[in-house]
Amino acid sequence: MESNKPRRIGYYMSQSKLARLPWAEITAIALAKGCELVAVDLERDIAEQGPFDMLLYKVTDELVRGDDEKQQRKIANLEAYLASQQGKLIDAEPISKQRAIIDRQGISSLLVDVERQLPQALQAQIRSPRYAILAQKADDYSAALAAEEVHFPAIVKTIQACGSAASHEMGIVFQEKDLHAFELPLLVQEYYNHDAVVFKIFAVRDEVYIVRRPSLRNMGDDETTCITFNSQEPLPSTLFDKSFDVQDRARLADPPLDTVKHVAGALSATLGLSLLGFDMVTNTKTGQHAVIDVNYFPGYSGTPNFPELFVNFLLQRLNEA
Fold first, then answer.
1. β-pair type (275-282, 207-214)
2. Where does ATP bind (predicted)?
3. pTM over 0.85
């Protein structure tokens, strides 16, 4: 009878994350396939909540908020449990791999490495924006930008990619003097005009899906006024072009699926993670595609049949043991 018991998969993620996923459907499909999904409380003894055959968690926000004692305790509890279960438990997407994706400087550097891993024929199709890191206050940042060949317009972001309100504060700047209004450290990344379309790429291992979404407008050569915004709140009207309609966006072709799959595969291999999302745009000036953001375990909104796809991934990881 013991062999007929469902295998237990412990999971941890924020309530807001769970709310964005069709979790009830995922749970039902998993149970029908012999897996019980069990919520794990990182503030309690994890061993007492087990035993588990596998653990899946998303702790990028907790890792970022390392100065918060509560989050520190959660991470310490998780790491201690994982250490005690080595050889007994499958760690689906290890915490050590998730650490690599929580700061934008690391992500930007990683994207350069990923481009170099692509087949030679594809490297000409991909060029992610140049960027500079401003870490120390200066009277003029022009030399720092020139050293990295960063040109305006540029998008300004905090180094921290998630986990705080500040990580979503951004700006489009057109001249050096506007950079002084932002708190350091900063990532200053070239802004590519992309005809107001961003391609959300959702990957579950080798399965890749492209979902197009409206994005920010093309910026004019003669613009000078800095535009600040919070990416988690309604964006200011100055970031949109009302004359650029749905039909205009529809005329922009998706990036080639083969190219997207190569990028997804290189990202997954470099990061050691299987549940990935990244944003691509097509540079209207050059026609090249650019990866402008990467995140772990995205929302997968618009991905066909995601619950089945996700459960199949869990089963694959279980069966690899």
1. unpaired
2. 104, 157, 189-200, 215
3. yes
